[in-house]
């Protein structure tokens, strides 16, 4: 209880003071939603002397509610925040686990003793990598039109807009069409559409659709398909229908011929 009281008193004291020489920075060149982000507080001996103070006067404040996050090496929400200290340096950091959009555009303050260093955690959307969920896959195997099988996949909260390609048996076939359905600040909802060409050579095997996100390839479709039989059945159905139509037309022509012949004979008999 006394230790926490010391922490609270220290935060109250540093809240009214500011230093212009210290700073903190985001060390990640790119941030990935769902991964860790690291903030580094840069100090020198003039601004903070930890050897003469007990407990450790270094701490972090901030977040969506701008509250005390960590002090003296301990963090209130250890599953979300972790304080990183170094034995050979006064510099210390804040590790934010499972980083998300809710952690952005808020003030964060690193403090040591009576010195505190403020900053706003913001980042350009192009520096964000996000692939939250693959929510819907439509694979219409029973409806092959114009020798193509349509595959549609919805990707929610993805950034940047990916480039997607299809591979059959590990070999590149063609690019997929990617359409932005809805745009947000840091991500997009996109639809990936691929029309798989069906022929007698490439109608079965492991079909993959891979999307490239900056430097990461993400598999959004990976299944073994075999639609050769379905394609052959469709062809047989078309052939049978064509034969049936031809037979029907021939029967119809024969019937017309016989009717006309009977009429002719009837008229000849009347004349006689």
UniProtKB/TrEMBL annotation:
<keyword id="KW-0472">Membrane</keyword>
<feature type="transmembrane region" description="Helical">
    <location>
        <begin position="238"/>
        <end position="259"/>
    </location>
</feature>
<keyword id="KW-0732">Signal</keyword>
<keyword id="KW-1133">Transmembrane helix</keyword>
<keyword id="KW-0812">Transmembrane</keyword>
<protein>
    <recommendedName>
        <fullName>Ig-like domain-containing protein</fullName>
    </recommendedName>
</protein>
<feature type="signal peptide">
    <location>
        <begin position="1"/>
        <end position="20"/>
    </location>
</feature>
């Amino acid at each position: 209880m006394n230790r926490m009281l010391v922490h609270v008193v220290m935060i109250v004291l540093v809240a009214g003071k500011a230093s212009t020489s210290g700073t903190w920075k985001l060390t990640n060149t790119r941030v990935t939603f769902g991964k860790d982000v690291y903030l580094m507080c840069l100090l020198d001996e003039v601004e903070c002397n930890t050897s003469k103070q007990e407990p450790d006067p270094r701490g972090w404040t901030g977040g969506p509610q701008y509250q005390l996050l960590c002090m003296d090496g301990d963090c209130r929400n250890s599953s979300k925040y972790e304080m990183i200290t170094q034995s050979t340096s006064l510099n210390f950091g804040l590790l934010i686990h499972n980083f998300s959009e809710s952690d952005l555009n808020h003030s964060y303050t690193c403090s040591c003793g009576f010195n505190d260093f403020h900053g706003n955690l913001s980042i350009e959307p192009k520096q964000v990598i996000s692939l939250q969920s693959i929510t819907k896959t439509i694979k219409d195997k029973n409806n092959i039109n114009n020798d193509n099988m349509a595959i549609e996949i919805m990707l929610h909260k993805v950034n940047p807009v990916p480039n997607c390609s299809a591979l059959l048996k590990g070999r590149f076939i063609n690019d997929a069409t990617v359409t932005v359905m809805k745009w947000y600040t840091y991500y997009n909802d996109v639809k990936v559409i691929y029309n798989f060409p069906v022929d007698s050579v490439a109608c079965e095997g492991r079909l993959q659709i891979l999307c490239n996100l900056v430097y990461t390839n993400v598999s959004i479709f990976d299944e073994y398909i075999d639609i050769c039989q379905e394609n052959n059945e469709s062809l047989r159905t078309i052939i049978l229908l064509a034969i049936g139509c031809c037979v029907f037309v021939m029967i119809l022509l024969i019937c017309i011929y016989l009717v006309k012949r009977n009429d002719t004979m009837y008229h000849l008999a009347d004349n006689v």
